[in-house]
Batch of 2 targets.
Target 1
Amino acid sequence: MAKILVTGGAGFLGSHLCERLLDADHDVLCVDNYFTGSKRNIEHLLQNPRFEVMRHDVTFPLYVEVDQIYNLACPASPVHYQFDPVQTTKTSVHGAINMLGLAKRVKARILQASTSEVYGDPEVHPQPESYWGRVNTIGIRSCYDEGKRCAETLFFDYWRQHKLEIKVMRIFNTYGPRMHPSDGRVVSNFIVQALKGEPITIYGEGSQTRSFCYVDDLIEGMIRLMNTPADFTGPVNIGNPGEFTMLQLAERVIALTGSKSELVFHPLPQDDPKQRRPDISLAREVLDWEPTIALDQGLQKTIDYFRKVVKA
Ligand code: NAD
Ligand code: UDP
Ligand code: UDP
C-alpha cells in the first residue's frame, strides 16, 4: 500500500479523500493549516493508526517521504479566498512549487486540484479542456483563478522539465456533507438559510448557471485520475453536466427542505461567471467515469447532514 500525502486534508473535499484512501488501506498524511478546514472534519479518522495529521502551511517547504501527493490546499469559497487574496495566490503558487519540489525529490506522483475557474466567465459552453478561458487578471476573483492557472503552468513545466508524473484535475462546483455551514458557497448557503427559515440570498437575478457534482462522485473521479497510466497528465474536467440556474437551485432546496423561506435578491458580485457546465467526454473516455448521483439525491444527503449541524 502507498504512503499518500493529502494537502488541505482537513477541508471539505480533502476529508472525504482521506477517508476513501484509508478505506483502501493506504497510509495517509493529512497536511492542513486549518484556514478553512477543521479538526472536526477528520476527527473520526484519528483513531486509525494509518492516519497522521500535521499542521503546516504549504507556502513553506515540507520535507516528508511519500509515494503520492494530492494537492488540495487552497480556500475554495469566494468569501474565503477573497479574505486574504495575497495569501490565496501564495497558497496556489508557492504551495505548488513546494509540493512539486517535494514530488521531484521523492519521485512521487502528484495530482493538482485545479478548477473550472480557469475558464473564467466562459464564452464557450459547455467547457472542454481545450478551451483557454476568459479570466480577468485584475479582478477580485483573480487571486484564485490566476493562482490556479499558474499552478497548472508549474505542473506542466515540472512535467516537461523534470519528467514528473503529474495529473491535473479541473473540478467543477462540488457539494455535500462537511461543507462549512458559513462557507459562503451557494449550496451550503441555501440549505442553511432554508433550514433556519431565513431568506434565501440570490445574487443578481439568479439566472446564472452552475453544474453541481456530489462529493462522492467527485472523489471517485479524483482517485481514478491519480491511478491512470504515467503518460496521462490531463487536464481533465470532473463535474456533473446537469446545469441549473440559481433560481432553480433555490426552488429545489425549498422543495426538499419543506422550508417557508422567501427569496431575497442581492447584487451580483464582480466577475461572477454567467454560465458553467463541464464537457466530460475526456473523463468518460480515459477514466470510464461519469457522475451517478443526481442533484435531488445529493441535495437530500446534504440536507440530512446540515439538519444535524445547524440549529434552527
Ligand atoms: P476547503 O476550503 O473546504 O478546503 C481547503 C483546505 O485547504 C482547508 O482545509 C484549508 O484549511 C486548507 N488550506 C488552505 N490554505 C492552506 C495552506 N496555505 N496550507 C495548508 N492548508 C491550507 O475547500 P474544498 O472545497 O475542499 O476544496 C479543496 C480543493 O479543491 C481546493 O484546492 C479547491 O480550489 C479545489 N476545488 C474545489 C471545488 C469545489 O466545488 N469544492 C471546485 C473547484 C476546485
Ligand atoms: N521543497 C520542499 N520539499 C522537498 C523538496 C523541495 O518543500 O522535499 C521545496 C523547496 O523549498 C524548493 C521548492 O520545493 O523551494 C522547489 O524545489 P525544486 O527542487 O524544484 O527547486 P529548487 O530547490 O532548486 O528551488
Ligand atoms: N450565489 C447566490 N447566493 C449565495 C451564494 C452564491 O446566488 O448565497 C451565486 C453566486 O453569485 C454564483 C453561484 O451562486 O453565481 C455559485 O456561487 P459559489 O460561491 O457557490 O461558487 P462559484 O461562483 O465559485 O462557482
Note: The chain has a mean pLDDT of 97.
Target 2
Amino acid sequence: MQPDTHALIAIDVQNDFCPGGALAVANGEDVVAPINTLLDDFAVRVLTQDWHPADHSSFAATHPGAAPYSMTRMPYGPQVLWPTHCVQGSAGAAFHPGLHTDRADLVIRKGFRPAIDSYSAFFENDKVTPTGLDGYLRSRGVTTLTLAGLATDFCVAYSALDAARLGYAVTVRLDACRGIDLEGSLAAALDQMRAAGVLLHG
Ligand code: VGL
Ligand code: ZN
C-alpha cells in the first residue's frame, strides 16, 4: 500500500474515449484493468471526468463549417476542434462500466465552462483557471502523484506537466494509458513530460 502522501489520479476513463465512443482512443478500454489494480494500491484516489455542455467551444459542431480534428484559435491560444464528446449527463460521459469508481475519494469534473477547454486536471486550457484539485491534494498532504488514463498525449500529459510545474513528484504509468496521436502529438507529449522531470513508467 502506498503512503498517505501519494495519490493516484485516473484521467477520463469514460465511454466516449473507449472503442465505440465519440472520441475513441485506440484500445482505450485496456486501461481499466490496470487502473483498478492501482486504485487498490493507493490511499488517495481521484478520478477526473471530461464534462462538457452540449454547445462547448471545443466541439467542431459548435463552429459552422469546421471539421473535427481541425485547429482553431481561442482567446487563450490554439485549440483542436473535437468531435462532440462527453456531453454532461450523456452515456458517453459516464465512466467505463468496468472502472471501480466506488474506490474514488474525489471526482473532479472539468471542461464545463462553455468558452474554455480543459485537458489538465489542474488548470483549464487558458493555463490560469484552476479546477480546485491542487488545493484538495495540498490539504490532504499529498506530495507525490501517479497518473494514468486517457488520453496519454492530451489530458494525461497536460495534467502531468501542470503537476510537475506545481511541484509534485509525478509518475505517469504508460502501461495504464492510451494515446490519440494526432500528427505526432504522442511523441511530442512524451518528450515534454521527460523534459519536465516526469517519470515515465511501463
Ligand atoms: C481529451 C480531447 C478532448 C482527453 C478530452 O481526455 O484526453 N482529449 N477532451
Ligand atoms: Zn473534452
Note: The chain is about 20% helix and 25% strand.
